[in-house]
Every structure is written in C-alpha cells, then in structure tokens.
Amino acid sequence: MKWLIAAVLWLLSNVTTADTLYVYTESSPPYHYMNEKEDVVGSSTTLVRQILENAGYDVEFLLMPWARSLRMVSKRDDALVYSLARTPERESQFFWIAPVSEFRLALVKLATRRDIHVRSNSDLLQYAFSAQRHDIGFDWLIANGLQEGKNLMSCADIHCSWQQLKLGTVDMIIEDPALIPYSAHAFGMKAEALETVMFIPELKVEGFLAASPKMAKPLVLELQQSARMLASQSVDGARATPQ
User: Fold this and answer.
1) Angle, helices 217-233/43-54, rounded to nearest 10 degrees
2) What distance in Å separates the CA atoms of residue 96 and residue 81, rounded to the nearest whole number?
3) Do 154 and 133 contact (CB within 8 A), yes or no?
4) 105-151, pLDDT tens digit by residue?
5) HSE-up of 90 (CA within 13 Å, CB side)?
6) Number of CB atoms found within 10 A of residue 11's CB
7) Bridge partners, 132 (sequence order)
8) CA–CA distance from 202 to each of 81, 88, 124, 199, 209 (Å)?
9) pLDDT at residue 87 above 50?
10) Cα separation of 11 and 211, whole Å?
11) 211-221 burial by CB neighbour count: b if 16+ within 10 A, else e?
12) Measured between alpha carbons, how far is residue 149 from residues 13, 128, 130, 158, 226 in Å?
C-alpha cells in the first residue's frame, strides 16, 4: 500500500495544475516592450499570448534583463521565455514551442565614427563593444577573440548597450538594423545618427518561444500543438518580423 501511495504522490507532483503560465522576456521593441500603462506588449508578445491562451492558460509577462530572464525560467516548471535564438548549444536546455520573431543582426556604430572599418572578423579586435551577457551577440564576440573586461563590456540589457554606444564608451554594438528606429527614439536619438557597419550572416536567426526544461512534457506538447493550430489558421502563416 505504501508503494502505491508513493506512486500516486509522485504522479501528482509531475502533473501541472497551474492555470497561469509565466513568460519572461527583455525589452526589445517592437517585438516585446513595456508601454506607458506598464503592460508588456509588442508583435511577438501578441503571438505568444495567442499561443498560450489558445491552449487555455492565463499569461503573466515579466520584463527583466535577459540573463536574469534565462535564470528565472530555468528554476520554474511553469515558465517560458522569448525571443530566444535556437542555437546548438541551447538545443537541449529548453523545450522549443514555436518561432515568434526573426532577427538579422549586424554591427552598428555612430554615423560620426568615420574611423571605424570592419572588412573581416579579424578587424573586430581593434574596437570595443558592449553586449548583453548570455546573448548570441555576446557569445559571437567572445568566439571571435574579444575579451570581457578588455574590449568587451558585459551589459544586463540592450538599454545598457545602447547607452554605452551613445556615450562613446564603446565603438560598436550588435543590433538588428530594422530595430534602430525604435531603439534610437527610446534614447532620444535619430535613426540617421546610426550606421550599419556589417551584417553578421551567422546571426540571422529566428527568435523562439521556449519553455523551461522543468516543464511537464504533456504541457509542452499542448503548447506546441496550440502553436501549430494557430499557424495553420493564419492566412499566410506569418509571424512577427521587423516592421
């Protein structure tokens, strides 16, 4: 009898009863950001909400620095994160629900910096960068020889990276040029004040809605099915792309 009770308790502990799912993200307009009412909104946010509510769940969005978002998701069995690049290193660290955005990242500088020229990755070492810790741009810079604390400043979020570029503390950041008008406006700058130096082919990626590795597999499958149903109902299968 004791083994039967133990088995039932184990099964109950592995079945999610939560009606609310918690979704973590960072500020990255127009995909996901906080409006004047302090609601998390944006094109990707709308799609994420549709996927989860279509599966019958309430959603609570939490906006915070990217590294912290990843840490929080890893600790909970009722949490998700977006927009997360699906890389080989991350493949086994999350359950992948659906793509919700697309990014084509590039090196970006102030337009007044005519002295900056990058013709190959080896030229990167001549300059200083800021990037968000645990972001694919940060990892790419490390892979190309930059060193944190030397020519690479680690930032908690994209706002920090932009601020360092604006102040001239660093020479370049990594950003999607399609997002420059939104980010420049947020920092009181004109889009014309920024220039794209070089696109990074390997950082043309889809941003996914991904679930905690602790999430129950039946729930993961339910959310994946919800995403597929929404995609099939869409006229053109569109998802959030840079506006």
Assistant:
1) 120
2) 10
3) yes
4) 999 999 999 999 999 999 999 999 999 988 999 999 999 999 999 99
5) 20
6) 9
7) 155
8) 22, 13, 16, 9, 20
9) yes
10) 21
11) bbeebbeebbe
12) 44, 10, 10, 18, 44
Measured in degrees and rounded to the nearest 5, phi and psi for residue 63 equal -100, 125
Share of the chain above pLDDT 70, in %: 88
DSSP 30-87: TTBEE-TTS-EESHHHHHHHHHHHHTT-EEEEEE--HHHHHHHHHH-SSEEEEEEE--
**Residue written as token pair 């220039």:** 195
pLDDT in tens, 166-183: 999 999 999 999 999 988
Cα separation, 66 vs 45, in Å, equals 15
**Tokens 């005519």 identify what position?**
114
Structure tokens at 12: 């109950």
Distances in Å between the Cα of 134 and the Cα atoms of 2, 139, 140, 158, 238 are 46, 7, 10, 12, 28
pLDDT 10s digits, 43-80:
999 999 999 999 999 999 999 999 999 999 999 999 99
Q: Are 26 and 32 in contact (CB under 8 A)?
A: yes
CA-based nearest residue to 69, from 173, 187, 209, 183:
209
Around Cβ 154, how many Cβ atoms within 10 Å? 16
How is residue 226 written in tokens? 């919800």
